[in-house]
Amino acid sequence: MIAEIVLKICINVMMEDKKDALFSAPIERLGDWTFDDKVAEVFPDMIKRSVPGYSNIISMIGMLAKRFVKANSNIYDLGCSLGAATLTIRRNIDQENCRIYAIDNSSAMVERCQKHINAYKASTPVDVICADINDLTMQNASMIVLNFTLQFLTPENRQLILNKIYQALNPNGILVLSEKFSFEDSTINELLFDMHYDFKRANGYSELEISQKRSMLENVMITDSIDTHKLRLKHAGFEHINTWFQCFNFGSIIAIKK
């Protein structure tokens, strides 16, 4: 119940919960996935019907923020989309002199994110920035969030951004890394992927919609195993790493700087 309330506050605050029907009719030339105006317009409905456990992750990010965000520090939401993680962090912290930076490279997402931030007033300031997170300079951070973002970076840039995150975090700072996972055990991998598609079917997506979206994402979203993520985090310098949430092939990892 709490997770549902928080999700509603975070991603429907502007009453933009339009039904995702982007792929309900055949598309002659699919191309690669982009977070354009059409996707941004239906994103709350899309994420709710496509990502199992999303509302739980969002609400729990707020709980983690309450524990880890320190006074006089920065918080970074990298790949913020419409600002769900930013809003739940902002709602749950009461530390003085903090600032949240919400960054996304999609101008369509950033424009709507800013509206959401403006609609939900709070004392902690938020800077919404349209930029490539690979080019970002971060510092004095007590919390950094990569909520289903790393999977859209090229594999060669993933270790680099994690290294930068580690360097930007203060001692006892936390990284929340949420991703769609792949699994080395082919039986488990197939089972969890099939269960994800069952989840989408149960939420009203047709076989055509599932197939067309999968085709568009194939070259853009490249998933990694949990072990691969943990190894990268260890190489970055993190010593405290674990999976704290998983539903089917979606989940979230926390990494804490000593």
From TrEMBL:
Keywords: Methyltransferase, S-adenosyl-L-methionine, Transferase. The keyword Transmembrane does not apply. Its EC number is 2.1.3.-. GO terms for molecular function: carboxyl- or carbamoyltransferase activity; methyltransferase activity; S-adenosyl-L-methionine binding. Residues 75-173 form the Methyltransferase domain. It catalyses: prephenate + S-adenosyl-L-methionine = carboxy-S-adenosyl-L-methionine + 3-phenylpyruvate + H2O. Coiled coil: none annotated. Transmembrane segments: none annotated. Belongs to the class I-like SAM-binding methyltransferase superfamily. Cx-SAM synthase family. Catalyzes the conversion of S-adenosyl-L-methionine (SAM) to carboxy-S-adenosyl-L-methionine (Cx-SAM). Homodimer. This is Carboxy-S-adenosyl-L-methionine synthase. It comes from Orbus hercynius. The lineage of its organism: Bacteria, Pseudomonadati, Pseudomonadota, Gammaproteobacteria, Orbales.
